[in-house]
Here is the input.
Amino acid sequence: MGRMETESKKRAKRVNIENIVLGTLSIVGVAALAMAAPNALQLLKHVDPDWVSKRDPRRRLRETISRMKRKGLVEFKMHNGRNLPRLTKKGEDEARRVALGETIIKKPLRWDRKWRIVIFDIPEKRKGLRERVRKLVSNMGFFRLQDSVWVFPYDCEEIVALLKLDLKIGRELIYIIADAIEFDTPLRQHFKLPLD
Here is the structure.
C-alpha cells in the first residue's frame, strides 16, 4: 500500500470504496462507470441514501447557491423555461472584488487536510476567457499544479461559484475536493502546511 493511501486511511477511516464510486459518478456519470467497472455499481446498494445525497455534488452546489441567495448575492430568473441563478448587483460587486484580488479567502484555524482543485477546459476560440480564469485563480492564491489544474487548501466553493456565475461558465470549470494529491510536499510547503 502506497504512502498516500496509508495516510488517507489514517486520517479518514470512513473513506472507503463507496466514496470512490460516488466521486467517479460525479465526474463521469453512471453509464461511463458501468462500462469501466460493472461490479462497482453493486456497491451503491449498500450505501445509505442520505449518505449519498450529502455527497452529491449537485446537492452541494444547490446548497452553495442557496447560501449565496440568502446573502443577497444571487437571485433566480426564468430563462428558456428554467429557473436559473443570476448574480444580483451585490453579487456582481463581490465578483468584481474577487477579480481585483480584494477578497481574501478565510483561512481556518486548522487545515482539514483536503485539497480544493479547480480544473478548467476552455477552448482556444475563447482564449481571452481562459487567460482571465487563469489570472483569477492565481490572484485568489491557488497553486498551479498543471496548465489548467490549480490547487488550494481551504474551502472556497462559494467564491468559485460566484466567479462561474459572473463569467457565465458551467462545466468548463470544475471544483473538486480531494482527500490526497500525489507528491504534495511542494504544495504543503507553498501553503505552509504540516508535512506529516
About this structure: Residues 18 and 44 are 7 Å apart (CA to CA).
